[in-house]
Amino acid sequence: MNYKACLDIRSIGLHKEDTSITIGKEGLSYGSGVIDFADVGLMKPINHRVFITLLDGSQAEISMLGFSFDGFWEELVGCFAERTRDALFIEEEKLMDCEGEYNIPGESPEKREAGRGRIQLYTDAVCILPESSHAVRIPLCFTEHISLNGYQLLLRMRTGEEYSVGKMGYDTKPFAERALRQEKSVKQQRMKLLQEIAPQEVFTEKGLFRTRQEGEYWLAAYGKDCCAVELFTGEKAATYLYRFANRQLFGFRLEEAMEAVGSYREIIFLPEEQLNEKPLYRMAVHRSAAVRFLRGCSAGRIIHNAAHAEKLAEFLGA
User: Fold this and answer.
1) Cα–Cα distance between 92 and 85 in angstroms, integer?
2) Which end of the chain is more exposed for a tag (fewer CB within 10 A), N or C?
3) For the chain, percent of residues with pLDDT exceeding 70
């Protein structure tokens, strides 16, 4: 739908211009310009104006929407959430969709976020969709403990991170009960699938992508402060190399990153310049600390050819 409004984006020299704004799947378009959802850091409605802060720090102000304000904000939030779900590569069945409070720990104190937003339960994950770029998909297979304390559901991860969601009205208790059931179910299913995988040659560790992707898995071989990962997906193969400082932390993040990318495995090895050309992938990397961690540990890759075994042994023995 098109909306008549006044748009002000000072960072590009656009000052208080009356224009037509269209909200689409990938962002907002106005005249000859576009605001891609991949570049959005935060959206806020204040006094019948919408403020959109971009990741580069610039801000767009949309005003003079008149009676269209509520419809504009509802459509904007809905399209942003849908694009965010795409960036989290969510393809599993949705079990519950609620509005509630959330608390996201963040990688540092300044990146922590709390507020109200959409809280969704899928067969394998809890998803928090705020009106910011801090959306998260919390995989139930990697939770250490889930507990309901009053109106708050606490999800503690193996790495010590703690998320909380709650105050969803009458949905709070059913949401918690179903989350606990799904946690048990997905862990049992993954354990069964992992037992069917036999490590090969130098590879001693094994793991899965999304739980529903049966027959696709990865194997890892460790050296001193280094790791080689082989993907078994039926696609053209290569061995991906990583270096790290802490083996346990790397192991956790490797598992989390592989589970996070699901079928979109090129996201873990695409060069930065190619990644920047794919807005959806940029959104995905921004929302996954594990994927960023894994990309940051990259030490190249070995193509499968006659010299593969020699190069692999050389890397692992280094």
Assistant:
1) 11
2) N
3) 96
